[in-house]
Amino acid sequence: MREDLLHFIWKTQKFTTNKLESSKGEQVQVLLPGNHNHKGGPDFFNSKIVINNQIWVGNVEIHLKSSDWYAHSHELDDKYDNVILHVVWEDDIAVFRKDKTEIPTLVLKSIVPDELLNSYQGLLNNSKRKFINCEKNFSEMDSFLLENWYHNLYFERLEQKTSLVFSLLEQTNNDWEKVLFTMLLKNFGLNLNSDSFYSLAQALDFSIVRKLQNNTLGLESVLFGMSGLLDKPELTDTYYLELKKEFNYQSIKFELRTKHVQSPEMFGLRPHNFPTIRLSQIANLYSLNHNLFDDLINSNSVTRMESILKVSASDYWKSHFTFGKESKVSSKTMTKNLIDLLIINTVIPLKFCYAKKHGKEINDELIGLISTLKPESNFIITGFDKIGEKTFNALESQSKIQLYNCYCTKNECLKCFIGVKLLNRNT
Fold it and tell me: What is the pairing mode between strands 54-65 and 83-90?
């Protein structure tokens, strides 16, 4: 038995009888089960219960066993003083308030229908499950209702992403341009070099980036040098030496410190994702766009955002992936896939935060933007595509990533619209 199932049973009042009794034989009638509380304190607020013909308004606490009340030290917490009913699966001990009055206890074990328990166990213990618990029934969900759930999941995921943005705003005294630079650099690193590039952004005073926007070589040298990519004394490559000389100059001028910067990785990366290429691209992005934050935040179309972000690495990198080693000439322009990831993970979260800070509602605009982007490609999206309709856009892929990571893998089926629909349908 899981406590989240008891919450579901209480919220939906799925009992085998309307004639409820407490463990002491008191008549119990539920007028209002209350509002489910997902934070600290009792599980349900503002419940309305009739106990022996007396109406009580207060809170309800739910546990697997009555003794959990004391195991969780609720008797010492003022937030639980207004609990009017203790709902449990097993009643193993009497529970008292601070004033020594006993809290009525409702035992669920004997009044929950077997079909509900069997359906829930079947959902969690599907021996044939390969991907998620409800994969056999996922395709049966109503597409309109599923679309609404996806919208909720997307904004839930967006809220999680914006926690970093608000933290950075606090650190930088609301310097939106510095926050954009930090988020962009972090996401330019993709999965492998995300932490490394983030440490670089944190270590580099953004005022230096502003001062070097007209000096691409200077900005490149700072990004390369602080990342430790200019620490190869054996190299005699002309461009490398030029960058190293420039970095030495900028280091003295701006008193640069590199001790907190994590070295980027190259092993396991495709050459076009090498840190050399990515750092050159972001240096050129800032050299070409002196009002990058304003340009992106005021863009109301993906096409416009893509045109701003579509930049190339410096000319040297057309025939190189690393210093001193020539390669076949190829374009080092940012791909549409990378640009779209930057829009998904940087631009849209920033627009969302900026609107919230200024008291504006732009949810419909954000849905329009994310819906025009292609879906990401990963094992989560592949898994969902196999059991349901093909993922159509980035709104759906972001929602499915949130669904999988925060619900499916944690067996949080009773907090999921799909799981609740399936359980209600079968009981």
Answer: parallel
As a whole number of angstroms, the distance between CA 6 and CA 413 comes to 13
CB-based contact 219:213 (threshold 8 Å):
yes
pTM for this structure? Answer: 0.82
Residue 97 has pLDDT above 70, yes or no: yes
The per-residue pLDDT for range 174-196, each reduced to its tens digit, is 999 999 999 999 999 999 999 99
Q: How far apart are CA 399 and CA 188, in angstroms?
A: 22
C-alpha closest to that of 400 among 38, 39, 131, 129: 131
pLDDT tens digits, residue range 278-330? 999 999 999 999 999 999 999 999 999 999 999 999 999 999 999 999 999 99
pLDDT of residue 126 exceeding 80, the answer is: no
Instruction: Choose between 138 and 130: higher pLDDT.
Output: 138
Q: Return the biggest CA–CA distance within the chain.
A: 91
Joined together, the tokens standing for residue 276 give 């050399």
The pLDDT, as a whole number, for residue 423 is: 81
Specify whether the CB–CB gap between 262 and 229 falls below 8 A.
no
DSSP class of residue 78? Answer: G
Q: What is the pLDDT of residues 246-267, one digit of tens each?
A: 999 999 999 998 878 999 999 8
The pLDDT of residue 129 is above 70: no
- Report how far apart, in Å, the C-alpha atoms of 314 and of each of 100, 140, 190, 334 are: 76, 52, 20, 12
Name all contacts of 39-46 with Cβ < 8 Å and 24+ positions apart. 40/79, 41/79, 41/80, 42/79, 42/80, 42/82, 42/83, 43/7, 43/10, 44/10, 44/11
The torsion angles phi and psi of 35, rounded to 5 degrees, stand at: -95, 125
**Would you give the end-to-end CA distance of the chain in angstroms?**
17
Are 87 and 10 within 8 A, CB to CB? Answer: yes
83 bridge partner residues: 59
Residues near 306 by beta carbon (within 8 Å), at least 6 away in sequence:
336, 339, 340, 343
Q: Say which residues have a Cβ less than 8 Å from residue 127's Cβ, sequence separation at least 6.
A: none
155's tokens: 């904004």
336: number of Cβ within 10 Å: 13
| Integer Cα distance of 65 and 45 in angstroms | 20
Integer Cα distance of 62 and 87 in angstroms: 5
Beta carbons of 124 and 413 less than 8 angstroms apart: yes
Give the span between the Cα atoms of 3 and 7, in whole angstroms. 6
State the average pLDDT over residues 99-124.
86
Task: Tell me the H-state helices in 272-403.
Answer: 275-288, 292-297, 302-309, 336-342, 348-357, 363-371, 379-387, 394-403
Q: Which residue shows structure tokens 């190189």?
A: 320
